[in-house]
Amino acid sequence: MFTIREGRKEDCRQLVDMFAAMDAHLKSTADPDTKWTDDPNVCVQQLEEDGFCVEESQRRFRIFVAQSVADPQTLVGYVFYFPKYSRKGRGVWMESMYVKRECRGTGAGVALMAAVANRALTDGCQRFEWSCREYNHGSMAFYKKLEPIDVTHDDQDIVFRLNAPKMRQLAARADLS
Ligand SMILES: CC(C)(COP(=O)(O)OP(=O)(O)OC[C@H]1O[C@@H](n2cnc3c(N)ncnc32)[C@H](O)[C@@H]1OP(=O)(O)O)[C@@H](O)C(=O)NCCC(=O)NCCS
Prior knowledge:
The protein is of the alpha+beta class. Helices cover 35% and strands 22% of the residues. It has a 5-stranded mixed β-sheet with strand order 1-2-3-4-5.
């Protein structure tokens, strides 16, 4: 059993541990020849600063956690997300979600996403978006139950990323007045 609540600064250590477990999960489900292009995960101190600084307008993300009822000090899952804005107006982007293996299949995943959807609608958002690695078959099956639009397939919308070296190359061409 679990309860859902907003994340707190003191959750950061457990969150970083779950980020590592998330990476391990992805690596275990990927094809052996998968190209890994991600940077290392954020550290506890950076996460605390980025998500829980005193000045709320400076916070870079929002988070809900699933907390064990039997052991309230223990988190069993998280979802983190942030506001997104497009020419269609307000939305949210779900960056990452994880439920510990021993708690899967008990409704925590849906409860975490429901909390984001509820908050987003309260904030006037009309779109809830995320990405998922195609080889992550379990999560794909879980998400498909929510009947989302597959924007890669239906809108042919491809997600790109520049990591820091390519960002620096591009930024060198900036000419702002
Ligand atoms: C994906 C994940 C968050 C789902 O969390 P969960 O707590 O197990 O999901 P729930 O218990 O809320 O399940 C909701 C529904 O999805 C279904 N479902 C969950 N996992 C599934 C799976 N692997 N295959 C098929 N269906 C699945 C459940 O049966 C349930 O269906 P129902 O509504 O008909 O009863 C969890 O499996 C996880 O953390 N996976 C590893 C990390 C990961 O891949 N995260 C997502 C990255 S994009």
